[in-house]
């Protein structure tokens, strides 16, 4: 890893998005979300994953000229049709209104369909927590996870993310995890590095357990904790596909192949803690310190300084190439 100024990374990412066919607003949304993931230590779903977005823009899986459509059938509900674009674009367009409605009503729900898979799901709830709100998000993509060892693919990794605000001198609490034993990007990374997978992560195309990442790519991931992980995946599926009116994971297109937008879905719930407990950030901060003293790792606390964001130089080289040199 090398460190780069945040502003330089955002500018490079925007140029690459524009060069690959994104509209100006989409390019800005993707660039900022990708750099935010790198700052949070989520390199695999940061600028490295932006490269997947860029190829998808070129090959038609993301509609670069997408114009998200927003309506509001109830005061505390906002709906977005992403028009084949990216979830970050629609979220950015709705964010200010979503946050205001959460403050006004105590909670507000955003449902989005017809979008590319959401990438770092923690980005959406982290934005809310930085505005003093509690955030909960769920998203789906194409089916690549079996419901149990030996079973067929039924769900995507179906991640769930949660964030809560802390005092201004601390980054928010952010929990972002898949319902699978690992994220699919970790399988791809292991295959590229020629590394074996831990047991229990995946199975091959014949539904046999495997530690070979190449076999896992054409096979299936496995849920964490057996049926417990599968139950969480089902819950996310009901929210991200059922509630949004979007495609079920069995019907969603692959985010790395094909020439049509995959049509994933995402839900984001925003809650105003101050209306329930005015001293919420301070109380939570003190409780997290108590838990940390007992050995708890507090998620979300590791963020790079804006002027020194770590990125793999090979990723920078590829973004520079895709941006046109």
UniProtKB/TrEMBL annotation:
Q: Does the keyword Cell cycle apply?
A: no
Q: Does the keyword Oxidoreductase apply?
A: yes
So where does this one cross the membrane? none
Provide the alphabetized UniProt keywords: Oxidoreductase
User: InterPro entries, from UniProt?
Assistant: Mal/L-sulf/L-lact_DH-like_ah, Mal/L-sulf/L-lact_DH-like_NADP, Mal/L-sulfo/L-lacto_DH-like_sf, Malate/L-lactate_DH-like
Which Pfam families does the record cross-reference, listed alphabetically? Answer: Ldh_2
> What is stated as this protein's family in its record?
Belongs to the LDH2/MDH2 oxidoreductase family.
Spell out the PANTHER family in the cross-references: MALATE DEHYDROGENASE (PTHR11091:SF0), OXIDOREDUCTASE-RELATED (PTHR11091)
Please give the name of this protein.
Ldh family oxidoreductase
Q: What species does this protein belong to?
A: Gemmobacter denitrificans
């Amino acid at each position: 890893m090398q460190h780069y100024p945040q502003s330089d990374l955002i500018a490079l990412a925007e140029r690459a998005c524009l060069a690959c066919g994104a509209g100006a607003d989409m390019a800005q949304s993707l660039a900022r979300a990708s750099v935010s993931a790198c700052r949070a230590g989520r390199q695999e779903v940061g600028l490295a994953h932006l490269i997947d977005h860029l190829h998808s823009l070129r090959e038609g899986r993301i509609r670069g000229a997408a114009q998200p459509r927003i309506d509001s059938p109830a005061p505390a509900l906002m709906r977005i049709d992403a028009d084949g674009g990216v979830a970050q674009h629609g979220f950015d367009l709705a964010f200010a209104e979503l946050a205001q409605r959460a403050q006004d009503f105590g909670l507000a729900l955003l449902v989005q369909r017809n979008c590319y898979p959401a990438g770092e799901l923690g980005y959406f709830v982290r934005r809310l927590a930085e505005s003093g709100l509690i955030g909960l998000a769920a998203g789906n993509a194409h089916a690549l996870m079996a419901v149990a060892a030996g079973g067929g693919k039924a769900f995507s990794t179906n991640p769930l993310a949660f964030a809560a605000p802390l005092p201004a001198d601390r980054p928010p609490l952010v929990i972002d995890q898949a319902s699978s034993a690992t994220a699919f990007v970790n399988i791809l990374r292991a295959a590229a590095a020629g590394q074996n997978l831990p047991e229990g992560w995946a199975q091959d195309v014949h539904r046999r357990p495997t530690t070979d990442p190449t076999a896992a790519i054409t096979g299936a991931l496995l849920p964490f904790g057996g049926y417990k992980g599968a139950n969480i995946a089902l819950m996310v599926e009901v929210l991200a596909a059922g509630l949004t009116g979007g495609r079920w994971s069995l019907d969603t297109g692959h985010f790395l192949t094909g020439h049509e937008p995959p049509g994933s879905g995402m839900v984001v719930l925003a809650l105003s803690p101050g209306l329930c407990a005015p001293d919420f950030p301070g109380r939570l901060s003190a409780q997290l310190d108590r838990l940390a003293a007992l050995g708890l790792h507090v998620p979300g606390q590791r963020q790079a300084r804006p002027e020194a964001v770590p990125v793999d130089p090979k990723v920078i080289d590829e973004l520079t190439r895709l941006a046109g040199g």
